[in-house]
Design a protein that fits this description.
By secondary structure, this protein is an alpha/beta fold. About 30% of the residues lie in helices and about 30% in strands. α8 (about 230-245) packs parallel to α12 (about 370-380) and α10 runs parallel beside α12 (about 370-380). The chain starts with a strand and ends with a strand. Bound molecules: uridine-diphosphate-2(N-acetylglucosaminyl) butyric acid (EPU).
């Protein structure tokens, strides 16, 4: 079993370069199947979720070549084969293949997608979009058979601004006949990144980044070259680490507006941050003040940074409140933080953190990706040695985590035990 061993309480100095966004890459890779020929993606992070998608592409007879950060995907020999549950259950994004295969072949058979166990994650909004675009759906024991005689544009009013449903609706609508309007669309930067790539391929999408996206369907798309945006959650995680133990730590290759909800709160708490056009510098000399946050859809405070942020709040002076509004079960890191010495109580959707508390290293478990990030932050500020088990969750989302942190002075290694 692989574990992460961390000796905490080292000041970090130097520069951390942010990789391409996981949640863009996992949508862009399936989206390449909509186009004929070859698409070249740059800034593809080396993380295990991408390896699963690569295996899925190969299964669909798509040729994939990877070379230092880029991925060449040639769809010339694409086949509509049923994707085995062993692959589709490994990540949430596998259901983007549902959309692209439906759009290309008007038939797809696939299981319910996987993903972190952070609460119920229904796909009703995606299925609603498929139906409104002309598909019929048979469901049996989490196996879906989705087909259409013809896909035709429509108005799709989403009940909530779901990231996945917005992406799935876009992926089908680009090749459907006529006009589609996605109302109450999600506005996350990863959706805009996908729309930009699809437009380079020849799609006609407007309004992305707002809550109403308009798509005029086209008959075919061609491969293109596309650079994936930097990962705002990775950038946010390292910024949090910098606010705790950074010594003028540089977080490089970021889009500052994408993490504004975090940097605004950190500044209010008293953190010392200099924000530049594509990097920031953060220092940890000041005592942070307690604060209250509530997770929201973009541009609000991201749920994916909530867990690492709770760790930061254990060092802030006073009582902080964190309300999780997106997922039911995103506080699984808290029992471990409390074992390490934090003082956190959870009632319903709200965590109350009393700080500052000193954390001490011990053995903890990464129950999901961002819980892993929370415990990583805790291990870096704790006295002594922390062992984080189940790090496969963490490695799903953070590229070269050991190298990046070692380069700036952390004592961290992956060990096989
Ligand atoms: N929801 C429904 N019905 C739906 C879709 C969503 O009820 O049909 C609910 C979900 O239960 C959930 C909420 O709406 O409570 C958010 O779901 P959404 O569809 O917006 O999220 P997602 O597409 O499943 C993506 C990211 C998540 C990130 C969320 C919110 C990917 C692959 N995943 O998930 O990332 O938390 O958006 O920003 O893009 C992560 O990276 O750790 C992660 C979980």
């Amino acid at each position: 079993m692989k574990v992460l061993k961390v000796i905490g309480n080292q000041k970090l100095t130097g520069s951390i370069r942010i990789s391409g966004a996981k949640n863009s890459a996992v949508a862009l890779i399936p989206a390449t199947l909509l186009a004929s020929g070859t698409t070249t993606l740059c800034n593809v992070p080396h993380i295990s979720d991408i390896d699963v998608l690569t295996q899925t592409l190969k299964y669909l007879n798509v040729s994939v070549k990877r070379a230092s950060g880029s991925m060449l995907i040639d769809t010339t020999n694409l086949k509509n084969v049923d994707i085995p549950i062993e692959l589709s259950s490994r990540l949430r994004a596998s259901y983007y293949f549902m959309s692209v295969l439906l759009a290309r072949f008007k038939y797809v058979k696939m299981h319910f997608p996987g993903g972190c166990q952070i609460g119920s994650r229904p796909i009703d909004q995606t299925l609603k979009a498929f139906r409104l675009l002309g598909a019929t759906i048979e469901e049996n024991d989490d196996l879906f058979i989705i087909q259409a005689k013809k896909l035709k544009g429509n108005i799709i009013p989403l009940d909530m601004p779901s990231v996945g449903a917005t992406i799935n609706a876009m992926l089908v609508a680009v090749l459907a006949e006529g006009k589609t309007v996605i109302q109450n669309a999600a506005r996350e930067p990863e959706i805009a990144d996908l729309a930009c790539m699809l437009n380079k391929m020849g799609a006609n999408i407007e309004g992305y980044g707002t809550s109403e996206i308009t798509i005029i369907g086209v008959s075919s798309l061609q491969g293109c070259n596309h650079d994936i945006i930097p990962d705002r959650i990775e950038a946010g995680t390292y910024t949090i680490i910098g606010a705790l133990i950074g010594n003028y730590l540089k977080i490089d290759n970021i889009i500052p507006s994408h993490i504004k909800s975090l940097t605004d709160v950190l500044e209010e708490m008293g953190a010392d941050i200099e924000i530049h056009s594509d990097y920031l510098i953060i220092d940890s000399q000041k005592q942070l003040k307690a604060t209250n946050i509530k997770t929201l859809h973009y541009p609000g405070f991201p749920t994916d940074l909530q867990q690492p942020f709770v760790t930061l709040l254990t060092s802030a002076k006073g009582v902080s409140h964190v309300e999780e509004t997106i997922y039911e079960n995103r506080f699984m890191n808290i029992p471990y933080l409390n074992k390490m010495g934090a003082n956190i109580q959870v009632k319903d959707k709200i965590a109350t953190i009393l700080g500052p508390t000193k954390l001490k290293g011990l053995e903890v478990k990464a129950t999901d990706l961002r819980a892993g990030a929370s415990l990583l932050v805790a291990s870096l500020i704790a006295e002594g040695e922390t062992i984080i088990t189940d790090i496969n969750h963490l490695l799903r989302g953070y590229e070269e985590i050991v190298e990046k942190l070692t380069n700036v002075g952390a004592k961290i290694e992956i060990k096989e035990i």
